[in-house]
Amino acid sequence: MPAPAVRPLLTRRARHRLAADAALLAVTAAFAVPLAWLVLSSFDTEATLRVKVPGSPSLDNFSAVLTDEITFTPMLNSLLLCGSATALTVACAALAAYPLSRYRSRFSRPYLLTILFSTCLPITAIMVPVYALFVRVNLIDTLYGTALFLATAQLPFAIWLMKNFMDGIPRVLEEAAWTDGASWFQALWRVILPLMGPGVTVVTIYTFAIMWGNFFVPFLLLLSPDQLPASVSIFTFFGNYGAIAFGQLAAFSILYSTPVVLLYVLISRRLGGGFALGGAVKG
Amino acid sequence: MSRAAATGAYGTAGSVARPRRRARALLRWSPLAPATILLLLFLAGPIGYCVYIAFTDMQLTGQESTSFVGLANFRRAFGDPAFLNAVVLTLVFTLVSSILGQNTLGLALAALMRRASRPVRTLTGAVVLTAWVLPEIVAGFLLYTFFERRGTLNAILDQLHLPSQNWLFTLPILAVSFANVWRGTAFSMLIYSAALAEIPQEVTESAEVDGASGRQRLWHITLPMIRRSIGTNLMLNTLQTLSVFGLIWAMTRGGPGSRSQTLPVFMYDQAFLKSLIGYGTAVALLLLVVGALFSVVYLRLLREEV
Question: CATH number of A63-270: 1.10.3720.10, 3.40.50.2000, 2.60.40.10, 3.90.1150.10?
Fold first, then answer.
């Protein structure tokens, strides 16, 4: 009599699924409330601090913030700052990963361990000496100085990721290039990097997204209002004129967040759900 | 196969060819130079400078020169109630948000998602990951509006006829801790989803057949099998949480008074608002040392795994 034995098992499984669904939906609802505020308020010209469905939804908040001063200049600053820093990080990381992945020597392991060690250091803690140093060498309030620091702060993790991706490319392929007399640079540029396209994309997107959201570094190192990136300029919504236009704040937050959200979607499509990071984290 | 090209610079040492070999080794390792120079100038440099400033009385303004004061900054820190307050708040913040919150909730979500139906799983993943992906400052504002006196949490409590209160005033450290849970849980969820997916199906199934209850399976099978992921995750969460600044700054600026002033906020306050660079850096150095200790433990965990 197999049937009676199977049926309760199935219903138990179904019951478990239902319980799991209910629990997840409850947690999801709690997580979704602040996000709902963001979306609903951005369409509400009379937005308050509470989640509420806008009486007459409109795009007025967006058109109010889409000006040079509020949106375009800070976003352009963010783009310049993070774009140049990302380019520098990725270029340096690709170069550095090559010998670490290809050659063996007694200092490559300590080098890698140092890199891994510094990925874990709380960068927040060194911002005070960085500020003091930047004042002393006149890099304070310069976009390129800030970009150099952002690039360096992200470099250890980028090297680590890049090296792991590069290890996945079989060596045989460039040995052929070597016997043909190619230099290391040609082997890296012509053979390896084209093969690890997805890996380079992930490192680039991840680096850019992290920098785009970074608040503390530009907050400390950039002073002139016309140079501030979006992560810092968002504070001008507060304080300046007394009342806060919450609808506009929400609209600007959405505009500022959209690029990173899209980029993350792009990586997860490419690598199945953020597991590039899981892999990196596990070494 | 020309292995010779690949075996590295310190292979068999032929005494005649040594200078040439050394030149070739230099050329070979030259791609490391740009990254190394940047890391030395902008990371190792500031860390070294940090160690130096922490032993001086450097100030931003109102002082002609900086002099060496030995351990005075550290002695001052350990006698300073404001510093001790920041240490306690940092411990609370880390314990509540990272160890209890992100870690446990992340594991629970990952485990539930294995049982849940596909649409619910997708929805939960999308919402929790969005909270993680949003820039820190945006997350800070969103949770500010949630916990504010006129905010959504109180609106919900009113609806349920529960007493509302000014959360950012009465329990600021818990409010920012919950904010950090909201923002950081996705990371643990990803790590634990990957770890749980690696547990062989047969192991759990045979335990189920043997009549082990859900709790027994969790305690005796699941947790021991993912203990490395737990270690890694706790370590990384804690390190992340130790350096949270923007989130707290956007929500409370460390206030009211100093009741949500964790170490990074305290450091900023001393160094920039009170202009005491030397003292602020000493605090930063302590934070850095704690971070370094966690890093070393993390490296050990990884080494076991390799």
Answer: 1.10.3720.10
Kindly determine whether residue B128 and residue A133, on different chains, have CB atoms separated by under 8 Å: no
Beta strands in chain A (DSSP E): none
Q: How far is A41 from chain B (nearest CA, A)?
A: 11
What single letter denotes the amino acid at residue B41? L
Q: If you measure CA to CA, which chain A residue comes closest to B285?
A: A125
Mean pLDDT of chain A, nearest integer: 85
Residues in chain B with CB shorter than 8 Å from the CB of A261 are 130, 133-134
CA-to-CA separations, A175 to A172, A183, A186, B235, in angstroms, rounded: 5, 11, 12, 40
Residue B170's CB is within 10 A of a number of other CB atoms, namely 12
pLDDT, mean of residues A147-159: 94
- Print pLDDT tens along chain B (306 aa): 344 444 444 444 445 567 777 887 788 888 999 999 999 999 999 999 888 888 888 876 656 677 788 788 888 888 889 999 999 999 999 999 998 999 999 999 999 998 889 999 999 999 999 999 999 999 999 999 999 888 889 888 988 888 888 888 888 999 999 999 999 999 999 999 988 888 888 887 788 788 777 788 888 888 888 888 888 888 889 888 998 999 999 999 887 888 899 999 999 999 888 888 888 899 999 999 988 888 888 788 777 654
ipTM: 0.86
- Residue contacts between A and B (CB atoms, under 8 Å): 288
Q: In Å, how far is A116's CA from the nearest CA of chain B?
A: 8
Query: Which chain A residues touch B235 with a CB distance below 8 Å?
Result: 120
Task: For CA atoms A139, A150, B272, A240, give the dihedral sign.
Answer: positive
A261 to B134: CB separation less than 8 angstroms, yes or no: yes
Please name the residue of chain A whose CA is at the shortest distance from the CA of residue B277: A128
Q: B35, A159: Cβ pair inside 8 Å? A: yes
Q: Where are the domains positioned within chain B?
A: 89-264
Minimal C-alpha gap between B174 and chain A (Å): 16
Q: Are the C-beta atoms of residues A202 and A270 closer than 8 Å to each other?
A: yes
Chain A nearest-CA distance from B71, in A, is: 18
E strand spans, A92-184: none
Domains of chain A, residue spans:
12-58, 63-270
The reply to whether residue A120 touches residue B49, judged by beta carbons under 8 angstroms, is no
Residues of chain B in contact with residue A48, where contact means CB-CB under 8 angstroms, are 150
Please state the rounded mean pLDDT for residues A230-252. Answer: 79
Report the interhelical angle of B136-147 vs A2-42 (nearest 10°): 90
pLDDT at position A245 is 82
* CATH of segment(s) B89-264: 1.10.3720.10
